[in-house]
Amino acid sequence: MELPSARVETRALPTNKELQAKTRVVVLGTGTPIPDAYRAGSSIAIVHKGQSYLFDVGAGAVRQATIARYRYDIPSLYPSQICCLFLSHLHSDHTLDLSELAHTLWWRRNEPLSVWGPIGIERIANGLLEIIATDAEFRIGGLQPVENPNGYKVNHQTISPGILYEEDDLIIEAFIVNHGDIEPSYGFKIITDDLSVVISGDTAYSEVIAEKSDGVDFLFHEVISMEGLKNNSPGFQRYHNSVHTTSEELARLANRTKPKKLILYHGLFYGTEESTVLREIEDLYDGEVILANDLDVFIAD
Ligand SMILES: [Zn+2]
Ligand SMILES: [Zn+2]
């Protein structure tokens, strides 16, 4: 399929088609800090009634959003149309594309990007202002017509656990997960009129995820392969065990909560075949397990 190129898109309101579409989950990036030719950094988009809500924005995620916008005809995934971003934690593999998202075609943004993040988000937001200051001066002070001179500013809010966002039949909730000494780190639960999703963020086995994901349509969960873990130095094994969830632990969690689909992302494979982690879980869990790839789309049955 040929996709259009270099198309300037503006949009005041969602179309009827967008408003009537079912909620879609578009996986923008399934990667980790390790550069990967097939996986962008961690990012999942929930597309609901003409808006796209992103959960993390790792390196390359915005490029994937542009591709998804055209491949799946989702106008709200055009980068300057993305309204909202929720950051699970402030490890760089979850935030590296923040400047790209906030500043791509900023002068044509209807509204600045809204970002929710853990403590530390203010520091990042101030840094973003510095990154874009020279560009903003050139554009606003020069000959270029600038529709929205405030479009480069980011509206940031610090997350506290509980409901972060409520709009009609969309509810976004944040809860604290255990990502070792990276505190606070959050997971998210998203409920719409036709879908329930839990996104783990980065986490070791967390009781709260078992509780929140009981019977959900989709549980997106990070994972580290048991076999891959053994390829690490003792220092890294200790670190990974304290901050990530092994395939064995995730199978145990899934057996308790029985999501309709368990969808693996942010997989740490460490030299093993990617299918190994899937097999490790399937050996211990009978439900449906999917290893997500970038640009996969999920819709509730
Ligand atoms: Zn990560
Ligand atoms: Zn992390």
List keywords for this structure.
binds zinc ion; Metallo-beta-lactamase, Chain A; 301 residues; seven-stranded mixed beta sheet; alpha/beta; 9 helices; 28% helix
Task: Outline the structure in words.
By secondary structure, this protein is α/β, with parallel strands linked by helices. The protein has a single domain, classed as Metallo-beta-lactamase, Chain A (4-Layer Sandwich), CATH 3.60.15. 28% of the residues lie in helices and 24% in strands. The strands form 2 sheets. Strands 6-5-4-3-2-1-14 form a 7-stranded mixed sheet. Strand 10, helix 5 and strand 11 form a beta-alpha-beta unit. Helix 8 packs across helix 9. The radius of gyration is 19 Å and the shape is globular. The mean pLDDT is 97. The site of one zinc ion has 5 residues, from loops.
How is the secondary structure organized here?
Elements: H1 16-20, E1 24-29, E2 43-48, E3 51-55, H2 61-71, E4 84-86, H3 98-103, E5 114-117, H4 121-141, E6 155-158, E7 162-167, E8 170-177, E9 185-191, E10 196-199, H5 207-212, E11 218-224, H6 226-229, H7 234-243, H8 247-257, E12 261-268, H9 274-282, E13 289-291, E14 297-298
Parallel strand pairs: 3-4, 4-5, 5-6, 10-11, 11-12, 12-13
Antiparallel strand pairs: 1-2, 1-14, 2-3, 7-8, 8-9, 9-10
Bound molecules: zinc ion (ZN) (2 copies).
One zinc ion is lined by residues 89, 91, 179, 182, 202.
